[in-house]
Design goal:
The structure is a homotetramer of 112-residue chains. Chain A has 112 residues and is mainly alpha-helical. The first copy, chain A, has a single domain, classed as Up-down Bundle (Substrate Binding Domain Of Dnak, Chain:A, Domain 2). Chain A has 4 helices and no strands. In chain A, helix 1 runs antiparallel to helix 2, helix 2 runs antiparallel to helix 3 and helix 3 runs antiparallel to helix 4. Chains A and B meet through helix 2 and helix 3 of A and helix 2 and helix 3 of B.
């Protein structure tokens, strides 16, 4: 049953990895202060994406609701990352936006 | 700033612990099959409660939204646990309901 | 820097997904009681694999040590799953063993 | 059975909360760059403490091994936090050291 979720699970795992990489890279930037909100959102987004993957893989009755929230956090994180020119931020923004799209679809399907 | 969240954080930690204890105790019951949905909801509830505690402790901008979802999952888990007479299920139901109430309050305050 | 970890991160994400799927499938078996240890180890293994992926993606100074422990848990979970004929257990056993191998390598490299 | 773990579970939850609060407070400091390692260790420590609490509450066969690793990470995080004068770092250092001690005891008992 959970196979229907596979592309969304993959997007969540990829987004979590990108966010975790981005937070560490941000901490090594010269102007860390400018990256503070990016780091905070990276933490939130990585954690909720890993949880969304777990809920989907388990076929949880709350997988759809969690994906809807995950989509919002991915969107916010992607928008913040997109403001910064560094490659890790641009990579993270792309992963976040792809994941937001997958989670939005999952959330609306599951709620139907 | 995060101190305003303390009673909700405490309720989330207590609920997560109760759910994790309940899932293990359910797995040791003679009729495990009857406990299947209880175990599944215990897993979901324990994980989202630990994440909600983390978001609140970090003062995340998504703490309120996560608490709203956490309240729904606590409610469902508490309702399921309440159906079973075993002490671990009754203890878990009580922890879930207290946490649902705290998270509902947190969710509505944060959204205001 | 974290790119060196990519194949181990991928194995951890795949193993976590397989364990989460397996725990749900086990809960739907006729003889759930026989699957109790499998379900318990699936929970442990899924959670530690997701954490190991996070630590590696962040390039944590404790990534190697966490991978060493993750390898042990994957090994135990894979050995337990391998005892059961169901496809979900066999798939999970394979994912666990691949992840155990990747984590063992990561753990020894990082400790060197 | 898991009640024997209660004081260690409580220490893990308190340490996770303190680390999550500390990471956010560090991100708001003027000299964030100086806090980079503290933030990174706070993330590791918060996550492993929440996982250790989960493993103990479930009575996992790997609870002792996870607590041993958790003790090391708490120690490292506490030592780093102790270098900084801010109240959030001093509070976090105290929570980390208490948790390291509880986890060390748990790890050695469980391994016996």
């Amino acid at each position: 049953m959970q196979q229907q979720y596979q592309s969304c699970i993959d997007a969540c795992n990829a987004c979590a990895d990108a966010c975790d990489m981005c937070s560490t890279a941000c901490l090594q930037e010269d102007d860390v202060k400018m990256m503070a909100r990016c780091i905070a959102l990276d933490m939130d987004c990585a954690q909720i994406c890993r949880l969304a993957a777990a809920f989907m893989a388990r076929g949880s009755e709350f997988a759809g609701a969690l994906c809807q929230l995950c989509a919002q956090i991915c969107q916010a994180c992607g928008d913040e990352c997109a403001k910064h020119q560094m490659q890790h931020c641009q990579d993270c923004a792309a992963a976040c936006r792809r994941c937001a799209e997958e989670c939005r679809r999952m959330g609306s399907t599951a709620a139907a």
